[in-house]
Recover the amino acids of this structure.
């Protein structure tokens, strides 16, 4: 272990600034150029191993940036239960890299032992809210810390899904004590695909429940918007971020870009756009 | 009203088979999830098995990926493990074909993938042997680097692997003799190299926990060959620890 490996790492809470994801094409340039971003976010599952280039790059980057660890594999809404082996790996990664924030998704990933390795949507029912909250609480107890739970993009609506998604998430927060990672691109994608009211979504979440924002690009495939993290953030999503910042205040805000990854400078420029929106709010508060 | 278990079961069944109905709207959009899954799993295999993909081409690799997932569905939320059974799948899938070498090539690539995320332990050097009396040597048990993987194939898989580190490499003559070799972590990267059959046998015995004396017998090494083999394992930094097991 582990924590010794991040001795000298940036400590303390993540500032209310924009951050970028740590992706392998940027390992060298991030270390060499040290762009002025507020934090880095890394996919937890990429750091389950003892060694490897990704692990070494993250340890080095920790000397310059606070860290958010963002998991995509736990799927705490799976009826199969909490994957304790996976959770133990998350705990080891937390001990090793000492992140300020740890997040997962409001989704399920497996059924009867088969993993789909995708962020599959939950129906917004009382049963699903209670199960997700119970398993989030179980994970938090095991990890000894609060989790942030992210809303996912949806491409289908369940025939029986009586709760508005924002009420569903609010109930999970109330029952489990978790906080939310609000992905405003996911709200936009789901709203466009399913006819939701994105403004009502942001306005309907409990005040004080959100601790981080995500923004990202999406793609159009016929009539469907797909959350592919493969392009710049569109103006409508920036506007939604502006609304979310007005409601929840300036918070750590990640620009996600996982496919067709651009040069680091392009990603940093996107993060500066997010920073501008966060500063607008800080200016109002001043 | 369906339970959450029933909802997830029917959703999962519909992801596996588009003909299975699921109570979602619009049902056609389930294709997005199916496409995501196909893409994710295929990319994961492509990352782990770039040389197999180069040899078989994009279209056939896509076909292999789909059949592999049917036979070996993902069992982990960590995608790294998705490809772990690919060589076993190819063994079976290509059983009656002239392409069984692809399975051995996949085994080698899996070792490279495992080695690439392994930890490198501090090596000890040959001077450690001076702590032991000559009579104790045969009872020494070597702990080798955990990243070390040994491979023996009836096909020239090491040549195949090294030749196909670039796209559009020329074909390798499959009638060449089989090869033995190893994969290990060196300077934070996986190193792939052949070793001769005697050294391979010696390393395999040591890696299996045999004492030095037993490993020497297994590999049929004479004194000079043993000296060379010991020189190799220490020079290459393959030894992490020695223990004396005289009780055997």
């Amino acid at each position: 272990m582990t924590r010794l490996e991040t001795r000298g790492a940036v400590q303390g809470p993540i500032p209310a600034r924009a951050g970028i994801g740590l992706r392998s094409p940027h390992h060298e340039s991030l270390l060499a150029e040290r762009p002025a971003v507020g934090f880095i976010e890394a996919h937890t599952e990429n750091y389950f191993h003892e060694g490897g280039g990704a692990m070494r790059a993250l340890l080095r980057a920790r000397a310059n940036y606070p860290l958010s660890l963002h998991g995509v594999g736990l799927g705490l809404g799976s009826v199969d239960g909490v994957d304790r082996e996976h959770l133990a790996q998350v705990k080891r990664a937390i001990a090793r890299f000492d992140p300020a924030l740890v997040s997962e998704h409001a989704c399920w990933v497996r059924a009867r032992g088969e993993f789909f390795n995708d962020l599959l949507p939950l129906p917004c029912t009382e049963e699903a809210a209670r199960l997700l909250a119970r398993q989030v609480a179980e994970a938090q107890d095991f990890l000894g810390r609060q989790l942030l739970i992210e809303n996912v993009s949806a491409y289908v609506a369940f025939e029986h899904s009586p709760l508005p998604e924002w009420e569903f998430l609010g109930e999970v927060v109330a029952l489990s004590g978790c906080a939310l990672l609000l992905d405003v691109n996911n709200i936009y994608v789901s709203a466009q695909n399913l006819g939701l009211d994105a403004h009502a979504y942001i306005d309907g979440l409990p005040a004080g429940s959100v601790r981080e924002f995500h923004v990202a690009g999406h793609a159009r495939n016929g009539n469907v918007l797909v959350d592919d993290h493969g392009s710049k953030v569109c103006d409508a999503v920036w506007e939604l971020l502006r609304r979310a910042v007005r409601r929840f205040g300036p918070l750590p805000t990640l620009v996600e870009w996982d496919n067709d990854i651009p040069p680091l400078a392009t990603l940093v420029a996107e993060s500066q756009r997010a920073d501008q929106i966060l500063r607008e709010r800080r200016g109002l508060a001043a | 009203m369906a339970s959450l278990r029933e909802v997830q079961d029917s959703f999962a069944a519909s992801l596996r088979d588009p003909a299975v109905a699921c109570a979602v709207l619009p049902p056609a959009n389930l294709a997005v999830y199916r496409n995501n899954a196909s893409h994710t799993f295929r990319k994961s295999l492509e990352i782990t098995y770039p040389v197999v993909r180069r040899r078989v081409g994009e279209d056939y690799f896509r076909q292999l990926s789909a059949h592999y997932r049917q036979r070996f569905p993902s069992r982990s939320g960590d995608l790294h493990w998705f490809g772990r059974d690919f060589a076993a799948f190819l063994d079976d899938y290509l059983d009656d074909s002239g392409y069984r070498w692809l399975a051995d090539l996949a085994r080698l690539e899996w070792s490279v993938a495992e080695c690439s995320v392994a930890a490198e332990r501090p090596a000890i050097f040959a001077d450690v042997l001076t702590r032991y009396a000559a009579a104790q040597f045969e009872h020494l048990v070597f702990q080798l680097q955990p990243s070390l993987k040994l491979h023996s194939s009836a096909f020239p898989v090491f040549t195949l692997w090294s030749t196909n580190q670039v796209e559009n490499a020329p074909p390798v003559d499959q009638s060449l003799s089989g090869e033995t070799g190893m994969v290990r972590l060196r300077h934070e990267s996986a190193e792939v190299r052949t070793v001769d059959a005697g050294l391979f046998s010696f390393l395999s015995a040591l890696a299996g926990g045999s004492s030095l004396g037993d490993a020497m017998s297994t590999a049929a090494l004479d004194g000079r060959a043993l000296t060379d083999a010991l020189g190799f394992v220490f020079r290459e930094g393959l030894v992490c620890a020695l223990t004396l097991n005289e009780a055997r």
